């Protein structure tokens, strides 16, 4: 908690949001949002209120900084707020997958696929089967890779926006 506050003079806002997401996410979070607010009140914020701004954008649920960055870039570009770490179940109610970012109303799963998934052959095989299972439930699966996050994430935004429009979103 104190380290998060101290990093505010060195890190950009997205890194501070990702760090707060990490602290707040888990079955047993490392800290509660009230504790982070109290730390800001007790020790003060930075110029530009970076900590308060980061905390306002933070959410429980992301499993990685890349997922946080994807969520932030989608929001900054006018896309609807997704559900985070959303559990997809099939028609019988059986677990299919935990989705990084989900738009249940449009049946869209937007997921950041990191390099580790491609480098581990067994993990990649499990992932490929998982993607098929997601599509079998009638969902579009939008796979975001590192190169989609270049150019301020515009390729990722285009991919998710196009999927939402195909599904009927008119934002």
Can you offer a commentary on this structure?
The structure is a single chain. With 171 residues, the protein is of the alpha+beta class. It has two domains: 2-57, no CATH class; 65-166, VSR Endonuclease (Endonuclease, Chain A, 3-Layer(aba) Sandwich). Helices cover 49% and strands 15% of the residues. The chain has helices spanning 2-7, 13-24, 33-43, 50-57, 65-76, 115-119, 121-136, 154-166, and strands at residues 83-89, 95-103, 108-112, 140-144. The chain has a four-stranded mixed beta sheet with strand order 1-2-3-4, with helices on both faces. Strand 1 and strand 2 (95-103) form a beta hairpin. The model has no long low-confidence stretch (mean pLDDT 93).
Short description:
By secondary structure, the chain is of the alpha+beta class. The protein has helices spanning 2-7, 13-24, 33-43, 50-57, 65-76, 115-119, 121-136, 154-166; strands at residues 83-89, 95-103, 108-112, 140-144.
């Amino acid at each position: 908690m104190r380290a998060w506050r101290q990093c505010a003079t060195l890190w950009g806002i997205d890194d501070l949001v990702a760090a707060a997401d990490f602290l707040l996410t888990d079955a047993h979070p490392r800290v509660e949002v009230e504790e982070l607010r109290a730390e800001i009140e007790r020790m003060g914020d930075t110029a530009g209120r970076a900590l308060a701004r980061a905390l306002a954008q933070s959410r429980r649920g992301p499993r990685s900084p890349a997922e946080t960055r994807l969520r932030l870039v989608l929001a900054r570009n006018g896309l609807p707020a997704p559900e985070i770490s959303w559990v997809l179940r099939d028609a019988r109610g059986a677990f299919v997958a935990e989705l990084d970012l989900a738009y249940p109303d449009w049946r869209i799963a937007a997921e950041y696929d990191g390099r580790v998934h491609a480098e581990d052959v067994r993990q990649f095989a499990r992932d490929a089967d998982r993607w098929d299972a997601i599509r079998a439930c009638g969902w579009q699966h939008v796979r975001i890779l590192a190169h989609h996050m270049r150019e301020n994430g515009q390729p990722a935004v285009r991919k998710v926006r196009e999927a939402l429009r195909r599904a009927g979103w008119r934002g």
